[in-house]
Amino acid sequence: MLAYRYVPGTTFLVEQDVPIPVPGEGEVLLRVEAVGLCHSDLHVLNGALSGTAAGDSPYTLGHEICGSVVGTHASVAGFTPGDRFALVGINPCHSCATCLAGRDNICIGDKFNFGMGRDGGFTEFVLAPAANLVAVPDGVTSAQASICTDAISTPYHAITSMAKVQAHENVVIIGLGGVGMNCFKVAKMHANQVFVSELKQEALDAASAAGATAALPATDLEALLSRPSAPRIDVVIDCVGVPATFQLAQRLAASGGRIVLLGLGSMRLEWNVVENALREVNLLMSMWGTKKDLGEVLELTAFSSSLTSEIDFEIGLLNPFNS
What we know:
By secondary structure, the chain is an alpha/beta fold. Helices cover 31% and strands 22% of the residues.
């Protein structure tokens, strides 16, 4: 079968012909219906996720996967050929202390994630542990389901599990790329007011049309929120993660507020320790989403036109095998 693979020492996807895998103990073979492209794929190709984080042997990229069942190992029951499932890309082991505590998104088990050390979805068939599959509801397309596995479950986890945004709180989203726009959509479901900052005018216009309290470039938004009458900003989510946006987040967060660093644009950033300690501003890191998050996001997508419309905006980032 055709596969697009990461080969250590290269900075581009390598097209290779590889055997169709055979399910082992506890595994399901899926035909890939759709797979998303993620900025993390670029981190793999440029070497930022090499070694222990993503493996140092060749493998197939692609971690945002939706597929239909082709076959299973004899040890697996309850999967019917043709049924669609989304993969939990983080590939949790479900047996380590972290997984048993319900935090399978940061599993410490001895394994690699799909498309980051373990063969992923930039191919025609993929193997997955049955325990890491979530059924795709009727009404959710395979393309939408693939985006749910990361580009929506990641901001959903950041907002609901890490920041724990409440209905009376005000939120700022910095950066309106794929994850950032979905973060804005999810934030609108939970927060009082949602402000957004972005460089691209078309993204600001889209956020304004979707109901942002204000959608402005960074300088203008900071000026707006510096006014004496401006609302308190309880949560800032940095979906970019570069020095300029991280410093902006620290300036915008109110005393007692929370900052969630969601974007990984830089490997090192500066935290203003004393100033933030005096104001009790808390920094929260957020990684992907849990299996539970993915199930909830898929259900939301089935019933929420707000999320679905934004997934449609992402549709151009899907499956290289669909011409």
